[in-house]
Amino acid sequence: QVQLVESGGGVVQPGGSLRLSCAASGSRFSIYAMGWYRQAPGKQRELVASITNGGSTNYADSVKGRFTISRDNAKKAVYLQMNSLKPEDTAVYYCKVDWYGDPDFSSWGQGTQVTVSS
After folding, report:
1. How far apart are CA 19 and CA 69, in angstroms?
2. What digits encode the pLDDT tens for the residues 57-111?
3. Where are the strands (E) in 8-59, listed by range?
4. 98: helix, coil or strand?
5. Is 16 in contact with 103 (CB distance < 8 Å)?
6. What are phi and psi of 88, to 5 degrees?
7. CA-closest candidate to residue 36, choices 21, 14, 55, 16
8. b/e for 57-95, b at 16 or more Cβ within 10 A?
9. CA quadruple 34, 71, 39, 62: dihedral, nearest 10
10. Residue 93 and residue 111: Cα distance in Å, rounded?
11. Per-residue pLDDT tens for 25-62?
12. Residues in CB range of 83: below 8 A, 6 or more apart
């Protein structure tokens, strides 16, 4: 059974930094892409950043220049370095993994809370 374990959330002051981690296990399939989404209260879940197995990245305009996504293919892990955090970054952050399969499928983590507040 596929399992995604997230860590790294917490409370930070504006301008601070956090690093989120997500490790995937329990699947014999290969990973195509990994990413981070977030959902703030009363809002829809939105893409924050994604990275393919080839290293191509995609970022939401609101986080460009502040957040950096990276991955470790051997560990089936993805990371999100978040710098210059703003109160509007407050949300539950979810890890998502897209797997090659028959058919292809996706898995979601349980979510980790990030709160940016003074």
Report:
1. 10
2. 999 999 999 999 999 999 999 999 999 999 999 999 999 999 988 888 899 999 9
3. 10-12, 18-25, 31-39, 46-52, 57-59
4. strand
5. no
6. -70, -5
7. 21
8. eebeeebeeebbbebeeeebbbbbebeebeeebbbbbbb
9. -110
10. 5
11. 888 888 999 999 999 999 999 999 999 989 999 999 99
12. 17, 66, 67, 68
Tokens of 79: 């990371």
- Using alpha carbons, select from 53, 69, 117, 52 the residue that is nearest to residue 90: 117
**Token couple for 13:** 């002051």
Structure tokens at 34: 């990994």
Query: CA–CA separation, 105 vs 14, rounded Å?
Result: 36
For residue 40, give both structure tokens. Answer: 């703030």
